[in-house]
Amino acid sequence: DAKTTQPPSMDCAEGRAANLPCNHSTISGNEYVYWYRQIHSQGPQYIIHGLKNNETNEMASLIITEDRKSSTLILPHATLRDTAVYYCMLRSPGGSARQLTFGSGTQLTVLP
Amino acid sequence: EAGVAQSPRYKIIEKRQSVAFWCNPISGHATLYWYQQILGQGPKLLIQFQNNGVVDDSQLPKDRFSAERLKGVDSTLKIQPAKLEDSAVYLCASSLVLGLGGETQYFGPGTRLLVL
After folding, report:
1. What is the least distance, in Å, from the CA of A24 to any CA of chain B?
2. What is the pLDDT, as a whole number, of residue B104?
3. Which runs of consecutive H residues, i.e. helices, occur in chain A?
4. B42: which DSSP letter?
5. Whether A101 and B45 lie within 8 Å, measured CB to CB
6. What is the end-to-end Cα distance of chain A in Å, rounded?
7. pLDDT value at position B101?
8. Shortest Cα–Cα distance, B103 to chain A (Å)
9. Considering only CB atoms, which chain A residues are within 8 Å of B110?
10. Do A105 and B98 touch (CB under 8 A)?
11. What residues of B are in contact with residue A49 (Cβ under 8 Å)?
């Protein structure tokens, strides 16, 4: 059973913020939310992760709702190179490897 | 810092043949993963190593797939005999520490396998 739900595709104009949602209504208390992305023909790339506080790094921001049932990955100024499949996944410390399920992700297309 | 290395990058074989993939993780990374990614799908975990021990191989089709990491560094994944449905990209990933919330996986470029 999928633990996360993401829209299959989204478009975003270059230079604008891209907001990618992820629903994880059955998240457990010790599960972290991770985001990866996969550019065509490359291996997935780590973006960011968080437990319950909002997180920001040089690539993106992660907003997790107070009830932790959903999150949003924000790319503040999307560029054409951000076109990729974005995966949201959950992982608990010491969790089973079966948690490492990427699902189908969201295909983000950044338009010029 | 060098990334995760994989070889070969591409492989074409006929069904019932055998094939092996090699992965060299980032230096010092104790945890190594093998994933299978079928076209249009997200990566699916096959096996997870911690040093040279298997942590989880519950999703590895053991009748035809095998993997080893004898010295706790490099790893090989083998398929014997291959089937048409094994056509996929095989990804290797490594991480520094297993089990902590801050674990980040670093992926290699993958090996693209086509079984004819």
Report:
1. 17
2. 84
3. none
4. -
5. yes
6. 37
7. 59
8. 8
9. 42-43
10. no
11. 101-102, 104
Q: Cα–Cα distances in Å, from B18 out to B2, B64, B110, B115? A: 29, 9, 18, 10
If DSSP codes are grouped into helix, strand and coil, which group holds residue B86? Answer: helix
The number of C-alpha atoms within 13 Å of A29 and in the hemisphere containing its C-beta is: 0
Q: Taking CB atoms and an 8 Å limit, are A102 and B42 in contact across chains? A: yes
Per CB-CB distance under 8 Å, the chain B contacts of A5 are: none
Q: What is the pLDDT along chain A (112 residues), one digit of tens a residue?
A: 558 999 999 999 999 999 999 999 988 888 889 999 999 889 999 999 999 889 999 999 999 999 999 999 999 999 999 999 999 988 877 666 666 778 789 999 999 9
Which tokens sit at B92?
């290797």
Q: For B83-99, what is the mean pLDDT?
A: 88
The distance from CA A57 to its chain's CA centroid, rounded to whole angstroms, is 14
For residues B43-53, give the mean pLDDT: 90
Taking CA–CA distances from B104, the nearest residue in chain A reads A46
Q: Are A64 and A76 in contact (CB under 8 A)?
A: no
Two tokens at B61?
A: 């089709």
Residue B97 reports pLDDT greater than 90: no
Q: Say if residue B41's pLDDT is above 70.
A: yes
Taking alpha carbons only, the member of B10, B19, B29, B37 closest to residue B91 is B37
Beta-bridge mates of residue A9: A107
Q: How far is B82 from chain A (nearest CA, A)?
A: 22
